[in-house]
Amino acid sequence: MSDDDALDRLEQQSEKLRLQIAHTQAQLYDRKKQQAAERRRYAREYYARNREKLLEDQRRYRAAQRERDPERYQQLKRERTHRWYARHRDEQNARQRARYQADPEAKKQRRARHYAEHAEEIKARRRERYAANREVEAEKQRARRDQDKRRRDAGLPAARLRRVSASERAANDAAAEQFFGQRWPSWMKDRLRHGPPTPPQLLAAFERECARARAAHYLAEQRDELARLRSKLDRTGPHPRPATTPQELRIAQQEAIGKAINDRLRHRDPPRRPHHNDPAAPRTIPAPAAHPTGMNR
Fold first, then answer.
1. What are phi and psi of 16, to 5 degrees?
2. Do 112 and 119 form a contact (C-beta atoms < 8 A)?
3. What is the rounded distance in angstroms from the CA atom of residue 211 to the CA atom of residue 203?
4. Rounded Cα–Cα distance for residues 60 and 53 (Å)
5. Tens digits of per-residue pLDDT, 222-237?
């Protein structure tokens, strides 16, 4: 089979799997959408019928928690705050970045003042965190040293990440635009344009191999995705699968026994020997058949 035939076969299999994946995704989406709509409708109706009762229950429950265990109540309140922040993390970070970019010096001063007032507490927390995660921190340090060594061996400076202000970021963007947007000299363009070309047979073989590898990788990913979606669709089915009855088990067992007996007693033709086209191979001349009247003896 040639490379083109193999690539065509992979593309056909990929197209079939793509259609199956799309159909399974549509079924799963419709089922989830219907289930979510049913849950929302039921929740709205239940809340509308019992609104005052639910609010009163919440107030009594929180008051009882506060009276019974104030520390536990504060801990749960902090956890609710953390969950809210996790849901709105991007919005809060964007607001803080905008506030910092508007006045970076004020935040630097507040940070320095806070560190000066709580230096011992901050150092103690850092030591506790390092002691609790000693192996993780040691691995990070080893990885950082290895990275710095590789950069030094390659002639590159050590990687140093730091925060920059809006003005410095704008200056860096302008410098990058000026560097990457510069005009190349004509002699370099001529060298790139009229240099020795790549042999066409090597280029064609490289393109075929890349296309085959991409198709095979994409086909494997599609198979995994289809298996995952079908498994998820089976788990979220609207009705559970019925259990197998004893009668069905007996029928399946009898069919399996009959199939095994048929496979054992069925006559099978001997395998055909492959014919070779080697002209140098010795020829096998069959012996003449015996005459029925005995004239060849």
1. -65, -45
2. no
3. 12
4. 11
5. 888 888 877 877 776 6
